[in-house]
TrEMBL record:
<dbReference type="GO" id="GO:0004485">
    <property type="term" value="F:methylcrotonoyl-CoA carboxylase activity"/>
</dbReference>
<dbReference type="InterPro" id="IPR034733">
    <property type="entry name" value="AcCoA_carboxyl_beta"/>
</dbReference>
<dbReference type="GO" id="GO:0006552">
    <property type="term" value="P:L-leucine catabolic process"/>
</dbReference>
<dbReference type="InterPro" id="IPR011762">
    <property type="entry name" value="COA_CT_N"/>
</dbReference>
<protein>
    <submittedName>
        <fullName>Propionyl-CoA carboxylase</fullName>
    </submittedName>
</protein>
<dbReference type="InterPro" id="IPR011763">
    <property type="entry name" value="COA_CT_C"/>
</dbReference>
<dbReference type="Pfam" id="PF01039">
    <property type="entry name" value="Carboxyl_trans"/>
</dbReference>
<feature type="domain" description="CoA carboxyltransferase C-terminal">
    <location>
        <begin position="334"/>
        <end position="578"/>
    </location>
</feature>
<dbReference type="GO" id="GO:1905202">
    <property type="term" value="C:methylcrotonoyl-CoA carboxylase complex"/>
</dbReference>
<feature type="domain" description="CoA carboxyltransferase N-terminal">
    <location>
        <begin position="56"/>
        <end position="324"/>
    </location>
</feature>
<feature type="region of interest" description="Disordered">
    <location>
        <begin position="313"/>
        <end position="342"/>
    </location>
</feature>
<dbReference type="InterPro" id="IPR045190">
    <property type="entry name" value="MCCB/AccD1-like"/>
</dbReference>
<dbReference type="InterPro" id="IPR029045">
    <property type="entry name" value="ClpP/crotonase-like_dom_sf"/>
</dbReference>
Amino acid sequence: MKVRIGDGATGEEAEAIASALARHLATDVDVFVGDGEESVANAEPPADTFPLDDDMEPTEREEKLREEIADILGGGPEKYKERLPEAGKLFVRDRLDLWFPEGLKFEDGKFANFDSWHENSPEVDDADPNTRLPGDGLLTGAAEFDGRDLHFMANDFTVKAGSMARRGVEKFLRMQQRALKTGKPVLYLMDSSGGRIDQQSGFFANREGIGKYYYNHSMLSGYVPQICVLYGPCIAGAAYTPVFADFTIMVEGMSAMAIASPRMVKMVTGEEISMQDLGGAQMHAQESGSADLVARDEEHARELVSQLITYLPDKAGEKPPQSEPKPPRFSPDGIDELIPESPNRPYDVHDLIERIVDAESVFELKPDYGKEIVTTFAKIDGRPVGIVANQPTERSGAIFPDAAEKAAEFIWTCDAYEIPLLYLCDTPGFMAGSQVEKDAILEKGKKFIYATSSATVPKQTVIVRKAYGAGIYAMGGPAYDPDSVVALPSGEIGIMGPEAAINAVYANKLAAIDDPDERKVREDELREEYREDIDVHRMASEVVIDEIVPPSSLRDELVNRFEFYASVEKSLPDKKHGTIL
């Protein structure tokens, strides 16, 4: 409102009047002096200020609503809540308090199924606690997590074991569809026994039923990060959300996921097996590769996600957040001593990584699956990168089917979310043998090479030591459009290693030498000749690679190259999509 006061008023008096009126009338006030055309003082009411004559209060109607909300927030039957501590679990509302200590921004669908279960409804049977279905057992909404806005869903295990039914499914779908519109990450806090079989006509096969979950997961995939944390045995349909998510964290001794329960497995196959052996955290972390990480408990799961999101943008097309640079945990000066001269002697590639990346920035995914390759997020001078590194301590760093699959999926995810890639190549190539052929080494190796070929993010490749066979192809070799290929002086690039080459080319000639000593001398000569032929100096001389880098300068080299190529633009052929993944 506008207020005009006498000519003799001072500026301080005008400000005092403006402030007092704004507070008293709960409105904006502009004060003019005399006939002046411009205000000399302005004031806004404090956020919590209401007019002094406003003595209206909430009615019984609002009080009743608040009581209903409080009842809903209580969750399912008390006897089920009392069992949660035995399983090491938090009640879902307490879980949300752990994840979002500042509270939720809002929640959607608290009153789902309200008419069918609330005490005022004649349908409720007080003697049957299964008729208490607050929120239909599934919570959805929005919250701020470590400074980032996101959508969330969480199963309430006290409501029919977190099972899915019509109204809960509708809430889940609506949350996913809103994420497609907002471009904000999605957090799934899963603890569900699957669909309610006795109510399947309302949600199973419908166009907007549970099947639409996975359609929406597919639409969200690569658009916004989807992170899933498992808190219990997720069976059948419920088990697909974790595997559709970009990142899946299971809780040790608590989580499990499987296409069918142990009881169903026994009925179908006759096999007797425990839930943990069938689909527990360790099985999925070590054998199926479906779990990216295993948490010790609920608090640890939150810590892991808190670290994870520091490498991820909110949505595709945005750059990942950068942080303050830190020097490496260990000095780069030790890199050359770390790498053995012999291509067959092992060393732990984690030690190399810790001499390249910022201290305390290594965040490894699937550490217990496909161990021949390390896939880890890290930061170089504050910039998030995804590292694909051969691990010489595990079967000499040869690429086995599981490792190839793991690397392909990691590269694909990094590319989706604009995370630059660093390849640290030290491999004898793809493993040979009847078992790996049965395990689909060609199919999974193809996916690895395809992911490397199709990634359009900045890519840097380091030939650390051996780069033999098709291993150099999958590991971002010169033909695969990396922005740079640099090598350490220990590097070698060839169709195969010296031992295999000598056996393949000179076996008959060597066998013709009767004197063992003479034969060994000739073997050593041929080995050295071959190593000279594949040495990186020769490759650099022929400009196959871009540079040979002093090992102690490798970090600085990578800092400069990632910075220079941060805005590089790459394109793929104009097509619908490839057929490999």
